[in-house]
Amino acid sequence: MAKVTKTANDKALRDLVFSELLEGNETKYDFVRINDRQYGVILIDFNGHERYVRISAIVAEEREDMTAQELMQSEIDAYEQKQADKAEKAKKKEAKIARDKARREKEKANE
Q1: pTM here?
Q2: Domain range spanning residue 12?
């Protein structure tokens, strides 16, 4: 069995927990209270290892300069911008790899 990467495993476990919590049905997992703001659950990842997944409830401070909705939207916008920046960086990296490969092949052909 091929080993699944940490990134893929973590995303799958997060997606599983969020879908379980947000579907509105009775959950089949045993969420255990950790403290006054966290619950946890033990799940098995794609590699067959036990993983501890924490769910936290963080209450943002009241702010005088923006409403709760504006704060939430600003965090969503910041996340989306970071994802777009990451995608652009990956696109540039792929283009550079292609250019470098073409340059190396050209140099090799000219030898």
Answers
A1: 0.70
A2: 1-59
